Amino acid sequence: MKTFLRVLSYITTALVAAAVTLYLFTGSLSRASKLEQVESLIKACFIGEADMEAAEDAAAEAMVSSLGDRWSYYLNAKDFAAHMEQSENAYVGIGITIAADEEGRGFLVLVVQEGSSAQEAGILPGDIVVSAQNQSAQGLSVSELRDLVRGPEGSTVDIEVLREGQVLPFQVERRQILTPVVSAQLLEGDIGLISIYNFDSRCAQESIAAIEALREQGAAALIFDVRNNPGGYATELVTLLDYLLPEGVLFRSVDYTGKEQVDYSDAAYLDMPIAVVCNQNSYSAAEFFPAAIQEYGAGTVVGTPTCGKGYFQYTFQLSDGSGLGLSVGKYFTPQGKSLAEVGIQPDILVEVDEETDQAIYYGTLAPENDPQIQAAVRALTKSPNA
């Protein structure tokens, strides 16, 4: 009987201690935020294995999603680093563009960038990458192979390629690669075509250089192609517009504090006939560019209505390397119009079928076969049958 009472006493003491501990724990929880409470309970009580990093990523993504704003976003540390790298139009790699091989052997090398370490090593367009860092490329996604190939600047990567039935090994140095922002060519009729891929770093510099080069080649008019352009930095947009347009307001913005900023152009401008080609995948700065050209009467806008993005985002890096892109203000055209949910309405509407739209997106449609480019050519030459 005494033994039983002693055991009962021990059990009662343990239960009381547990109750006191739970009370103190729940009491401390009541002073924390809801997310902190959930995290603490998972860490303290969850019977399984919890990946708290993944849980925090999911919670942050859900919080941003709950805002109902399609332009705000959360990126985990890995994706945020890639996002920031992309915004600089530069990356550390070997300088090849790849696509999945149709026969499933690996990845077809489409382009070897001029002056890249891949070119110096001897890798050629048409080679099939079959392994990287001693790991087979079969079954990998493009992003997985990219992660194997990329790494710290100055380090090397081991690549094997299939060429004419032979597997050839290469050791290639990883270097900083500058991604072209602009391409340019002179079309028939002395019309310069400038394709702007984004408005991130170096956009204005490369665009202005392309314009000057085309003028030296005899260009008498210009077409700017901003189709499928995701936008970028307002500073790049304003610098390019300042070069193109006469004195006046170029761009307006109002941030979350109510502070308004107005950017102006000086009196110097480019006195040339201009057309801008845009489409439904022209976002942000790629919409405000044709908007300014249109409102100044400086050129003709051709294509399809743009996306209608009227908000701008600040990008915040969080303590763990992840990032938050948050809509913090509104953009307006020179005349003070918002493009939110409206976009730019082209002066000349030219719709294309899905197959043509895909060819434009992948850059496989020659200008002479591009209905929207040809409509811009006709607008500049004033010839209905050009």
Protein traits:
386 residues; alpha+beta; Pdz3 Domain; 2-enoyl-CoA Hydratase, Chain A, domain 1; six-stranded antiparallel beta sheet; 19 strands
Structure overview:
With 386 residues, the chain is an alpha+beta fold. The protein has 2 domains: 91-178, Pdz3 Domain, CATH 2.30.42.10; 182-381, Alpha-Beta Complex (2-enoyl-CoA Hydratase, Chain A, domain 1). Helices cover 35% and strands 27% of the residues. The protein has 11 helices and 19 strands. The strands form 4 sheets. Strands 3, 4, 5, 6, 7 and 8 form a 6-stranded antiparallel β-sheet that branches. It has a 6-stranded mixed β-sheet with strand order 10-11-12-15-16-19, with helices on both faces. Strand 7 and strand 8 (166-173) form a beta hairpin. Helix 7 (203-216) runs parallel beside helix 8. The longest helix is centred in the first third of the chain and has 28 residues, at 2-29. The radius of gyration is 28 Å and the shape is globular. The chain starts with a helix and ends in a 5-residue tail after the last helix. The model is unreliable at 2-25 (pLDDT under 50).
Mean pLDDT, as a whole number?
89
Count of domain modules: 2
CATH-defined superfamily of the largest domain: 2-enoyl-CoA Hydratase, Chain A, domain 1
**The CATH C-level class name of the largest domain:** Alpha Beta
CATH topology of the largest domain: 2-enoyl-CoA Hydratase, Chain A, domain 1
Q: Which structural class matches the secondary elements? A: alpha+beta
Q: Mind summarizing the main beta sheet?
A: 6 strands, antiparallel
What assembly state would you assign to the polypeptide chains in this entry? single chain
Total E-strand runs = 19
Gap between N and C termini, in Å?
Answer: 109 Å
Q: In what range is the share of β-strand residues?
A: 25-35%
Order of helices and strands: HHHEHEEEHEEHEEEEEHEHEEEHEEEEHH
User: How would the global form be characterised?
Assistant: globular
